[in-house]
Structures
1.
Amino acid sequence: MLTEPIDNAGLIVHGPLTSLLLLSALRHNSSKVVSTFSYRATSPLAVGRDVWFCGSWKGADECELWVEDGQGRVYMTGKGSLG
């Protein structure tokens, strides 16, 4: 049994997990099926950091996505198309 708190210093969030959460945000905000999705990690995301999963519709079926913190630092970008 763990009796001491874990120090999260130096731990980073798995990039594909972050992309899956970004894709989930897109799916949650549309009733259509996602036909394409791409992503790019732009900076390491540390465990314990508060971030927001954001998106902006570009037309009816295309969305630009990103993960950012309160200071505007972007950790991942993505694009999704609906079909």
2.
Amino acid sequence: NKLNTNRMKNILKLEQLGILISIVFIYYKLDYSWFWFAILFFAPDILMIGYLFGNKIGAISYNLVHNYILTFSLIIIGYLINNQTLIMIGLIFTAHTSFDRFLGFGLKTFEGFKFTHLN
């Protein structure tokens, strides 16, 4: 029913807020540059340009950088090869993804930008 659906959406939003806060805290503890955080935080949204070539290409390009598989992979690979830049970018992109999902923007379907895995 509608009440359960709204409750679940709120739980999912709180979960994403928790991830966002955790990632920002880790970023702070690692003493990375807040200048780069500000510059790169919205960088994943550049791939929305794919929508100029249609919904399918747009969804694929958007989803490419708005998923935790990529962001966590950057962090893990950066850790394994001792590359602080990869870790930093992975944390920033994870923060961005959790921020988007907190706002209700999910992974896109081929129907169009407004159609996500969250609705």
